[in-house]
């Protein structure tokens, strides 16, 4: 197994323009972003549109018609059918996710664990993306490069957990990674060129991370992270399916 995708040059100094090519995909077809109005989702949508590689961009969110909600399977199925009606789906990015809101904060200690907050994190970060996979993976073309990538998080890595805390978010992303790996195995049986991966975007300045940004952390803008993620996706090969990669293309330990 490779530990790093083929990096052409220094990933950190790569310009955004260089990384928008997506030239490894067949020309034409459709790029799809679930969560296109989020911090990373909107930057990724812009990057895909700028690549010019696909004929159409299908941007999906709770605010764009046909709207979808992670908690409503029917709406996910409807959104997937809407994307498929636009043409061959070549790239799907799931940029949805949940860490906190006014009523829920990540747990600092096991004393903060509650069934309600845990169910909410799992519903949004694990079950929602699993339902997206259920409805979009069968729509991928039977040959030629096609990628499904979901935004996971390094804190979902069990091996890499050194700080503790954030029980629900960590567990929901670890479970998401297992679902990606499992779906990749099933996908390979019918579509040998297709790739299904989890990606860690780095620490990125979005509403999701803002309350937790600490001094000393390397924080990227959404557009910088999107440029790196697009470059990673462009370098993915069929043998990388089922993997978990960070924004530089390095494998993240499970
Ligand atoms: N930012 C970071 O530092 C960081 C680090 C590691 C991993 N990630 C991961 O990257 C992904 C994107 O995060 P972000 O930083 O871009 O956060 P964000 O700006 O808060 O975006 C979250 C997205 O999830 C969507 N979403 C939440 N609940 C939903 C629901 N019930 N139905 C449909 N969509 C829903 C939001 O939709 P609306 O636009 O409708 O609200 C939004 O598009 C997440 O999976 C996150 O865990 C982020």
What are the SSEs and their pairings?
Blueprint: E1 30-34, H1 39-51, E2 56-60, H2 73-84, E3 89-94, H3 115-136, E4 146-151, H4 167-190, E5 194-200, E6 203-204, E7 219-220, H5 222-235, E8 244-246
Parallel strand pairs: 1-2, 1-3, 3-4, 4-5, 5-8, 6-7
Bound molecules: NADP nicotinamide-adenine-dinucleotide phosphate (NAP).
Description:
- By secondary structure, this protein is α/β, with parallel strands linked by helices.
- It has a single domain, classed as Rossmann fold.
- Helix content is 33%, strand content 14%.
- The protein contains five helices and eight strands, in the order βαβαβαβαβββαβ.
- The chain has a six-stranded parallel sheet with strand order 2-1-3-4-5-8, with helices on both faces.
- α3 runs parallel beside α4.
- The chain is globular, with a radius of gyration of 17 Å.
- Bound molecules: NADP nicotinamide-adenine-dinucleotide phosphate.
- NADP nicotinamide-adenine-dinucleotide phosphate binds next to α1 and β6.
Index terms:
254 residues, alpha/beta, Rossmann fold, six-stranded parallel sheet, two-stranded parallel ribbon, globular, binds NADP nicotinamide-adenine-dinucleotide phosphate
């Amino acid at each position: 197994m490779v530990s790093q995708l083929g990096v052409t040059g220094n990933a950190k100094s790569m310009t955004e323009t260089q990384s928008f090519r997506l030239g490894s995909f067949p020309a034409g077809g459709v790029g799809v972003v679930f969560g296109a109005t989020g911090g990373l989702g909107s930057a990724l949508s812009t990057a895909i549109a700028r690549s010019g590689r696909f004929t159409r961009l299908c941007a999906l969110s709770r605010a764009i018609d046909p709207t979808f909600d992670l908690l409503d399977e029917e709406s996910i199925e409807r959104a997937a059918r809407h994307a498929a009606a636009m043409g061959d789906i070549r790239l799907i990015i799931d940029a949805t996710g949940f860490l906190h809101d006014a009523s829920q904060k990540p747990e600092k200690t096991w004393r903060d664990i509650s069934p309600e907050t845990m169910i909410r994190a799992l519903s949004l970060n694990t079950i929602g993306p699993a339902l997206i996979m259920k409805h979009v993976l069968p729509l991928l073309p039977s040959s030629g490069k096609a990628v499904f990538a979901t935004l996971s998080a390094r804190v979902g890595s069990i091996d890499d957990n050194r700080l503790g805390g954030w029980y629900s978010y960590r567990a929901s992303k670890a479970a998401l990674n297992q679902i990606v790996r499992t779906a990749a195995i099933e996908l390979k049986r019918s579509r040998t060129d297709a790739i299904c991966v989890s990606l860690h975007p780095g620490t990125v300045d979005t509403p999701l991370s803002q309350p937790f940004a600490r001094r000393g952390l390397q924080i990227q803008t959404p557009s910088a992270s999107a440029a790196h993620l697009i470059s990673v996706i462009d370098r993915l090969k069929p043998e990388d399916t089922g993997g978990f990669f960070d924004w530089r293309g390095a494998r993240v330990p499970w």
